[in-house]
Design goal:
The protein has four helices and six strands, in the order αααββαββββ. With 159 residues, the chain is of the alpha+beta class. Strands 2-1-6-5-4-3 form a six-stranded mixed beta sheet. A hairpin with a 4-residue loop joins strand 1 and strand 2 (77-79). The chain has two domains: 1-33; 38-152, Nuclear Transport Factor 2, Chain: A (Roll), CATH 3.10.450.
Length: 159
Amino acid sequence: MHPRQRLLFLIATAGLLGACAGGGHPRSGRAPPPVLTPAEQVRITELSFAQAMAHQDFAAFMGHVSNNAIFFGGRSIERGPAEVAAAWKPLFDATEPPFEWAPDVVEVLKSGDLALSSGDVTIHGKVVGRYNSIWRLEAPNTWRIVFDKGEMICAPGKP
């Protein structure tokens, strides 16, 4: 076989093997999965965390909580998943979710393993507070919340 023919054969074979292995070859009809930035990953994770509350899926909610998590409640601090679960479970037993939230700020350290998400907390569309959450990359593409703190917004004229 001529060296040029051999090179073309090797390139074609590699392309076919890649397509058979699900490598996203253009002829396979499948696009390669999108590559998300760490900030996009955290934003999606935060939205998934909020959706767990919206759908009253306590198991999914707790799946976002790190084993080392610390949640700051009104006058309490919950350390670890067991304390977080005990404090938050009653909110999932209500007939409807007590509040909603969504990030409007997501920042990730240059190292790519620690992030902040922050946003408004609302009840029936009215802003009642603000939350700040710190997320840690605990496994590839797996962000878990390590710190969570919300603050109520006072009504005008009230401390």
